[in-house]
């Protein structure tokens, strides 16, 4: 079946079905990666304050010559900025050289204690405990609503067109839905062959929240086509394993954000394969049997709060997810 080139968000906004990821895109390379992606036909770039490279992303956008109105740009509220939402988005817009975002996500439900400069400007570092770990703001982490209310105001003001969440499990998203004036249009979570999360995917789709698939290729260092089901389909369709993984996500209704700084891979990853329903189901079954593992795990960077991290980070292999939902 031919796969959609766009998804429609619950507020009617269209989002291209494949976006370029920019996490860990090194300085000196991300500008050209973004420019080459836009010139190769991408119209969707996934960014974040946390990636510390939005200035270069902005340069890449400008260099590409593609009109702003044609590009869907996402950025994210950093964990240190839950009490400085407006300042954070202003900083992001300045770095990107833009006057609005298409989508602004709460990057994590988890908030950190910021080290706010005496002049009240944007925090650029967090407070550390005696062991040098970032201190978690437990109260704010347990209640994302005040920051969400600030994000809603950004929509009212036209600084962002849509708002959503990231790394929210079903319980947290359901709770937010009860109180949100503006519904989250998307939840960006880890969705990969090694962490397919079918229950979360189905719940988000049922609630008209677009599941965005981060680390769709298994992230850095992963083997992208080493599993039999992927190899077989790649050979059959004459494409790379990466194309099968990206197309599978689109076919199951998720919005993949493959990252690359390699021009040939960037161009390649945009090619969707017309997988049949049977092939998509076959991949789903193979993924459910694959060894499950989470690739995005920053638990060592923070203070003793594995409980919150674990609970805020959905994954199939996460018992907390199963018991709490
Ligand atoms: P991906 O799963 O996209 O994998 C990226 C890796 O795959 C890189 O090493 C890249 O290498 C390599 N690669 C890309 N294309 C190919 C190909 N065709 N063949 C072989 N290797 C390939 O990992 P990410 O973890 O970066 O996830 C994607 C994006 O999702 C991020 O960049 C970010 O935008 C978003 N994200 C969001 C998170 C969140 O908390 N909301 C967390 C994690 C990611 P190279 O670049 O050298 O070509």
From TrEMBL:
Source organism, top-level taxon: Eukaryota
GO MF, one annotated term: oxidoreductase activity
Record site: Lowers pKa of active site Tyr: 76
Residues the entry annotates as binding substrate: 107
Residue ranges occupied by any NADP-dependent oxidoreductase domain in the UniProt entry: 18-286
Active site: 51 (proton donor)
Family annotation (InterPro entries): AKR, Aldo/ket_reductase_CS, NAD(P)_OxRdtase_dom_sf, NADP_OxRdtase_dom
Protein name from the UniProt record: Putative aldehyde reductase i
Organism in which the protein naturally occurs: Acaromyces ingoldii
